[in-house]
Amino acid sequence: MSTTVASHPNRPTGQPPPGNTQSTEAAAYARRRRFRPYLVLAPAMVLTIGIFIPFFAAIYLSFTDYSLNSSDSSLIGFDNYVSMFQNADFWHSLWITIQYAFFCTTVEMLLGMGVALLLNEENFLSRFLRIVLIFPLMIAPVIGTLIWKLMTNPSVGILRQPMEMLGLGDFKWGASPDSAMFSLVVVDAWVYTPFVIILILAGLRSLPRSPYEAALIDGGSPWFVFKNLTLPMLAPVLLITLVFRLMLSLQEFSIIFALTEGGPGDSTMTLSLQAYNRAFPFYGLAEAIPMMLFLWALVYLVSFILIGFWRRAQQRAAGFA
Amino acid sequence: MKHRSPKIPLIARSAGVVALTLLFLGSAGAQSNFDWKQASGTKLVVMLNKHPYADAIIKRLQEFKDLTGIEVETSETPEENYFDKLTASLASKNGTPDVFMTGTYQLWDYATAGYMEPLDSYLKDPSQTNSEYDYTDIFEGVRNGGKWDLIPGHPTGTGSQWALPLGFETNIIAYNKKYFDEKGLKPPKTFDELYTVAKQLKGWAGPGSYGVAVRGTRNWATIHPGYMTTFTNAGAKDFEIKDGKLVSDLAEPKAVEVTKKWAQLVKDAGPPAWSNYTWYQCGADFGAGKAAILFDADILGYFQNVPGGSAQAGNIAYSPPPVMKEGDPVGANEWIWQVAINKSSKSKKAAWLFVQYFTGKDHGTWAAINASVVDPPRKSVWDNKDFQAVMTKMPGYLDTFNTIIANTSVKFTPQPYFSESTTEWAATLQKIVLSGADAKSAMTELAKRITAKTSKLKLDQPQKTATTQ
Q: Between chains, do A155 and B91 touch, taking CB under 8 Å as contact?
C-alpha cells in the first residue's frame, strides 16, 4: 500500500496523515511542507543573489579611490559622497534628470491616454492602428534614436524640407542647447508611448460595461463619463503605467547618449550620462558609483510613493475606500 | 664485372644534397631563419576599432595564420564607443584581449595604468623579432608616438616603446577641387582665408550645404584634428610646467583668441548640426558634396576620393592646414593608430608575432597599395613606386604631406587626464559656439578645472593615477 499523502482517498489533499501510528510519516510531511516555500523561491533567490553581488561590490568600491587607469586603490571613507554633493555638476545633472523624466512622462501619459481612448473604439482604422502603433516597441531605443538623428540632420535628413516649408529650416533639433531637450522628449515619446498605449488600452478593455450603460441611459455627457467613471476606474492602471514610465525615464541612458551624449555643452547631461562619463571615459569608477546609488534611491523613493497611491486607488476602484 | 662500393656514391650524393641545401639556405633571405611558427597553435583575441586599418588586418588574417599557425579572433567597435569598451576589458586584467588597437593619447592612460606590455625586449631579441623588421624604417616622429617615460609633462619619444604604428594621420584641408576650379577659388593658406572662403561657400551646393566640415561632438575627438592643429599653429599650448606643477594654459590670450576664431568659423561656415558631427558625419558630408571643405584627418579626405569611395570621388584635392600668418611654419597635430600587447595576456609570444607582422614591411606595403591604409608609417612604403602611383591620383596629397611632415607631431602634452581634460574642452567649445558663452570666461573656467587635477601630478617620476573630483 502506498504511503503517499495522495493515496488515502478519504483524506483531503494537503492534510497530514492521522494518528501516532503514522508519526514518522507526519514528521516527514511536516518537514516537506516547511521547506516547500524555499524550494519554490530558490530560483528567484539565486537571481537575487546574482544581482546583489555586483550591487554590494559597487557599494564597497564607492568607499575607495578605485579608477580604471590605476593599478591599486585604497579606502577613502565617504570622500566620494562628499565630493559628489559639493560638485555643482551633480546638482545640474540632477535637475536635468528631473526635467527629462517630467517632460517625457507627462507627454507620454497624455498622448498615450488620448490614443488609447481613440483605439478603444471598434472600427477598421482603430484595429489597423493598434498594430501599426506598436512598431516602435519592436526597435531597440538606440536604433530608433539613430534613425531620428539621421532624419533630423539639417544637411541630409528627410525632415529638412518639411521643416523648411514650415519656416523652421534653421531648427537644429539635438544640435542646439535650446532644442536638445525637446528633441530628446520627441524621440523618447516616439519610442515609449506605444508601451503606455498598450497598458492603458488593456485597462480600458477590462473596465465593467454596466456603469457606462447606466450613464448612457441617464444621459451623461462624454466628459461626465470620462471624469466620473473612466478616470476613477482606470486610476490603478494609470498609476502603475506612471510608475513604469517615471522609473525608466529617470534612468534613461541610451536615447540621450545616442542623440546628444549629454551635450551640447551640458544641456542634456543627466545623472546616468554624468556617471557613465565619470566611470568610463574619465576612468573614475569609484566616483561614479555614488551618483548611481543616489539615482537608485531616488527611483525607489518615487516608486514607493506612487505605489502607495496605486494601492489607495485600487481600493477606491473596488469600492472599499 | 667490378662492383662499385654503394657507400661512395651515396656519400657523394648526400654531400651534394647538403651542399645544395646550405647554398639554398644561404641565398634565401634571412627571414627564412626566423621561426614564425614558434607560437603555432595559439589562439589570440584582438580588439580593433572600426577603421580601414582594421579592415586591412582582417583581410590578411589567413596569410598570418598560414605563416604562424596562430588562430586570431577579432572584434570591431565604432570609435565613439571603442575606448570605453577597451578600458573595461583591460581593467578586468583577465588577459583578454591579447592585442588591441590604441591611439597615442590613450597610451598615456593605459601605459600609466600598467595595462600595456613594453615592447623593447621583444624588439631587441633576434629570436623574437625578424631581422627584416627594420624598426628605423618607421618615421621617427611616428614611432616616438608609441614611446613615453610615463612622466606627465615629458614629451613622447622618451622611455619605453609601448605600441607600434599601423598607420597615422596628419590634419589637412581637403577641398572640392572641381567646384573651386569652376569658381576660380584657391585653397586657403591662412586661417582668415579659410574663414572667408568657407563662409562664402554656405549653400554652395543647394539647401543643407555649407563651407567646412569639422567635428563637434562632446568628445575628445572633436579637439584633436582641425582645432588642435589650428591651436598649435597659432602658437598656443595646452599645458606648461610652472613651479614644478603641470598647469593648463587654456586661459592664455593665444588660446582664447584662436578658440574665438574657431568658434566663429563653425557658426558661420560649419555644419548646421555641428555638435552631432563625428569623423563619420564629416567624411560623409564631404563625400556627398554637402561640405565644400573638410578640415580633418588627411586620410578621411583620401577615403572619399578613392574610386567608388563617394559621390565626389575624383573631384577632391588636398592642401596644407592654414597658418595664422603667411610665412609661419606649417605643421599639424598627429594621430597614430597603433597596436599593443595587453600586459595580462597569457599569449605574449604569439601576440608579439601578430604585432610584428601587421606593423612590418610586407603588410604595410600591401595595405598601403591595396587597402587604403594611409598614411603608412614606413619610409620604404612612401618610396615604393606602386604606392606613389596610387598617391599621384590624389592631387596635392603627396606635396601636402612632404610640406608638413617635418613639423607634424603629437601636439598635446602627455598626461593621464587626457580623456577628461579634452572632453571638458569639447564641452566648453560647444558652449562657446552654441550657447554664446564668452570665450575668455569659459576657457578660464576650463583651465581652472583641469589644473585642479593636473597640478596634483608628481612630475619627477612615473605616475600612478589617483582620481579626485
A: no
The distance of B464 to chain A (nearest Cα, Å) reads 6
Residues A189 and A237 in one domain: yes
Both A125 and A35 in a single domain? no
The low-confidence residues of chain B, meaning pLDDT below 70, are: 1-32, 463-469
Q: Is the model's pLDDT at A19 over the cut of 60?
A: no
Quick check: is A8 in a domain? no
Question: Under an 8 A CB cutoff, do B273 and A264 touch?
Answer: no
Q: Which residues are CB-neighbours of B61 under 8 A, at least 6 positions away?
A: B72, B74
pLDDT digits (tens, 9 = 90+) for A104-119: 999 999 999 999 999 9
What per-residue confidence (pLDDT) applies to A170? 85
| Minimal CA separation from A57 to chain B, in Å | 14
Q: Tell me the pLDDT tens digit for each residue of A207-235.
A: 988 888 888 888 888 888 888 888 989 99
Q: Does residue A83 fall inside a structural domain?
A: no
Q: Which domains does chain B have, with CATH numbers?
A: 38-168+335-404 (3.40.190.10), 171-333+411-454 (3.40.190.10)
What's the pLDDT band for A18 if we cut at 50, 70, 90? low
Q: B356-369 burial by CB neighbour count: b if 16+ within 10 A, else e?
A: bbbbbbebbbbbbb
Shortest Cα–Cα distance, B220 to chain A (Å): 9
The predicted structure's pLDDT at residue B465:
44
In what order do the strands lie in the sheet containing B71-77? B71-77, B43-49, B99-103, B335-341, B164-169
Is the domain of A50 the same as that of A134?
no
Mean pLDDT, to the nearest integer, of A52-78?
Answer: 91
Measured distance CA(A297)–CA(A282) in Å, rounded: 24
CB-closest option in B110, B420, B434 to A177: B434
**Statement: residue A169 has pLDDT above 90:** no
Residues A160, B431: C-beta atoms closer than 8 Å: no
The span from the CA of B408 to the CA of B90, in Å, is: 30
Q: Nearest-CA neighbor of B54 among B77, B70, B33?
A: B77
Which CATH number fits the domain that encloses residue A275?
1.10.3720.10
Chain A interface test: which of B112, B467, B468 (most A C-beta within 10 Å): B467
**Average pLDDT score, chain A:** 89
All residues of chain B having their beta carbon less than 8 Å from the beta carbon of residue A176 are: 275, 434
Q: Which of A61, A62, A64, A69 is most worth mutating to test chain B (most B CB atoms within 10 A of its CB)?
A: A69
Please count the structural domains in chain A: 2
Do A182 and A279 belong to one domain? yes
- Confirm whether A268 is domain-assigned: yes
Give the one of A264, A266, A281 whose C-beta lies nearest to B84's C-beta: A281
Same domain, A278 and A196: yes
Reported as a single tens digit per residue, the pLDDT across B417-466 is 999 999 999 999 999 999 999 999 999 999 999 999 999 998 877 765 43
Residues of chain A in contact with residue B465, where contact means CB-CB under 8 angstroms, are 67, 69-70, 283
Q: Which of A70, A262, A286 sits opposite B465 (nearest CB)?
A: A70
Kindly state whether residue A1 falls inside one of the protein's structural domains: no
Specify whether the CB–CB gap between A163 and A169 falls below 8 A: yes
* Residue A16: pLDDT over 70: no
Residue B286's pLDDT is what? 97
Please indicate whether, in this complex, the C-beta atoms of B427 and A266 are within 8 angstroms of each other: yes
User: Taking the CB of residue A67, how many other CB atoms lie within 10 A of it?
Assistant: 25
Tell me: do A113 and A251 sit in the same domain. yes
Domain that holds residue A23: 16-61
What separation in angstroms does the CA of B246 have from each of B139, B241, B448? Answer: 29, 5, 12
Same domain, A147 and A249: yes
Q: Which of A55-59, A79-83, A159-163, B364-368 has the lowest mean pLDDT?
A: A159-163
The answer to whether residue A2 scores a pLDDT higher than 90 is: no
A195 plus A297 within the same structural domain: yes
Closest to A155 (Cβ–Cβ): which among B209, B430, B469?
Answer: B209
User: Of B306, B72, B292, which is closest to residue B200 (Cα–Cα)?
Assistant: B292
CB B370 within 8 A of CB B358: no
Most A CBs within 10 A among B89, B219, B294, B434, hence the mutation to make, goes to B434
